[in-house]
Amino acid sequence: MITKVHLDRWFRAELEPRMKLARIARTAEPFVDLAECERAHATLAGLPWPDPRSTLVLLHDLRQAPSRNDPDYEAVVIRHAPQIFSGFRRVAVLVKNLTGKLQVDRLARAPDSAPPSSRQQGRATPQVFTEESAAIGYLIA
Predict the structure, then answer these.
(1) What is the strand order of the sheet 3-7 is part of?
(2) What is the average pLDDT across 73-90?
(3) Are 78 and 126 spatial neighbours (Cβ–Cβ below 8 Å)?
(4) 123 and 5 Cβ atoms separated by less than 8 Å
(5) Gap between the Cα atoms of 7 and 44, Å rounded
(6) Per-residue confidence at 60, pLDDT binned at 50, 70, 90?
(7) What is residue 106's predicted lDDT score, i.e. its pLDDT?
(8) CA distance 86 to 22
């Protein structure tokens, strides 16, 4: 049974307990302004997952996200990514196409964008996929 963790106009977060899979899915709803974007990402960073993050893997599904690559928006994402991804055993980001993969890869290489746990324990940055089955395969391997 899937446990709902969070739902708002921009993100849905759920836990699939049998797979120990945390899932954050972006909706198609655009942010009206940067303040909205900031609040939504800050909320994600502080989500109260029912299980310890160290026992979970995370699938961050961005396939429905409106395309956006302006510097102010990307700065918000970079600022909150460490807290959003921190502590999970593995993280996979699911995107719609190669352009999205390139953007996520670029943002993951930005200074201070790697989760603190990754920097401290030498773990790789989140892996990016365009196929959900490949992302889940990576997470549960």
Answers:
(1) 3-7, 11-16, 21-26, 57-61, 91-94, 127-129
(2) 92
(3) no
(4) no
(5) 10
(6) very high
(7) 85
(8) 12
Rounded to whole angstroms, the Cα distance separating 106 from 94 reads: 15
Instruction: For 91-119, give the DSSP string.
Output: EEEE-SSHHHHHHHHHHHTSTT-S-HHHH
How far, CA to CA in Å, does 122 sit from each of 57, 86, 117, 119? 17, 13, 8, 5
Please give the backbone phi and psi of residue 137, each rounded to the nearest 5 degrees, phi first: -55, -45
Could you tell me if 116 and 82 are in contact, meaning their C-beta atoms sit under 8 angstroms apart? yes
Q: Which two tokens stand for residue 33?
A: 């302004």
CATH number 3.40.50.720 is the correct assignment for the domain at 3-140: no
Q: What is the pLDDT of residues 87-103, one digit of tens each?
A: 999 999 999 999 999 98
